[in-house]
Amino acid sequence: MAFLMKFCTLIVNVLCLPLHLIEAVGLYEIYKRVFPFCLYRFSKTYNKKMYDKKKELFRSLPEFNKPGGQLTILEIGCGTGANFEFYPPGCKVICTDPNPHFQKYLKKNIGENDHLTFERFVVASGEDMGSVESESVDVVVCTLVLCSVNNITQTLREARRILRPGGAFFFLEHVVADPSTWAYFFQHVLQPPWYYFGDGCEVTRETWKHVEAAGFSELKLRHIEAPLMFIIKPHIMGYAVK
User: Fold this and answer.
1) Which helix (H) or strand (E) is 31 found in, with range?
2) Which position among 109, 156, 165, 238 has the lowest Cβ density within 10 Å, counted as fewest Cβ atoms?
């Protein structure tokens, strides 16, 4: 099984040589302008299928609001703002994303969710959010982002830095499947083209191990099977308290 997987992955990598070359010469940057439109369409479908899970996850957000204060949320890799509808009324939202081309769709979702106070959009990667003050937010949200950051450990370190003591890191991420399944096999075989079409997305990450090792004082994490295509069916969801 392992040999077959490696052999098939090699074949797919060879077939993806044109994509590798496109990235090598810098032409892949063109796709980054198109990707926000693709993600906008995908997010609509994802939210419909994951509506109950997102409602369940974000139901706990108000618990981390300081008495008499305004709940402040920072979202890493906000994309098109697909989570806005699940945030409680009156909260303040700070958005970060390394791709500035998301702003068009972000503004659209801001206009459709006037129950929120939008503070600002910061063009920054999850690994380097130095423009955001330490211990300045109540909640950090990260959904479908840790699959594509360059360094999960550093991203989680930044999330902890930005959170106030007692604040929480909320996450919903697709992860690698159980090694005994065909889903695991095809995740590895199809990873090369998926990386390009998903703008750096990797479906073979054991993200839960990074969250468990991030040094949070309390962690509520569970594995779920999302009602999605097999390659992104395994998910983790929950929150961790600083």
Assistant:
1) helix 28-49
2) 165
